[in-house]
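Comment thread on ticket #2218

A.B. wrote:
> Attaching the input chain for the structure job we discussed in standup.
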Amino acid sequence: MGKTSGETTFEDIKRMTQTHLCAQCEGALVIIWNQLIDDYELVCGRDHQHQGYQAILSGRQAIARGQGDKVLGKGGQKDMESQIAKRPGLINRLPSHDIATHQTLSPATIEQLVIFGAQVGLSAVLGHCVIYFGRPYVTIDGYYYLLNKRTPDVKIGCRPCTTEERKALAAADDDIWWIAEAWEGDTKLPTAGYGLVTANEQTEMSEKHPGEFRAPVVHSHPQRMAEKRAEWQLLRKIVPLDIEEVTNE
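C.D. wrote:
> Ran it. Output below, let me know if you need it in another format.
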């Protein structure tokens, strides 16, 4: 592995055995030697035919994505959302700044974001939407929340692009590409999302803060950033927003 710096290395997949699970069955991941590709491969320990990986979620992330029952037990998600409605400070992920411009958000803008979230069946308090360049932007957690509410049988899996896929994408050696795919049961859906982190993004220095990287998170975690971009691109394709969708629960 790791024929170029943009490709996934053995150390990358070794780390992923600790940070990810199988997307299809949530089984632990293991590393095997695949003779067909003459390389190491990260696979599901329960079934090597399963495809895609999902990052292990914290308890708060699981609740934000509508999967609170997994960490709190049956009915835990509904109970938690009821508690949050009664005690808004219990979990408060309302943004205070525009994530692109870093400008402080006015109380009126935050209120509008809360209204927007409700209109599409989401909760700004749970971090389902933020402000990006002055406009409402649905986060990965928000899209997952809608997905789990509408079609909980659909699973999302991400993985680094293979050498062949990188060639098809005309990927530069130092570019990092991930792909996100979806399954309903054992059937793969005919839609994919791609996440790219360019070599320039990883190394570009800040003009405002000399000696610092322009995007420190991208510099420190380029693989994870490419993975999240792939997830978001796929989710926005298979989970269309309905501005008239207002929850009455």
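A.B. wrote:
> Thanks. Noting for the ticket: Confidence is low (pLDDT under 50) at residues 245-249.
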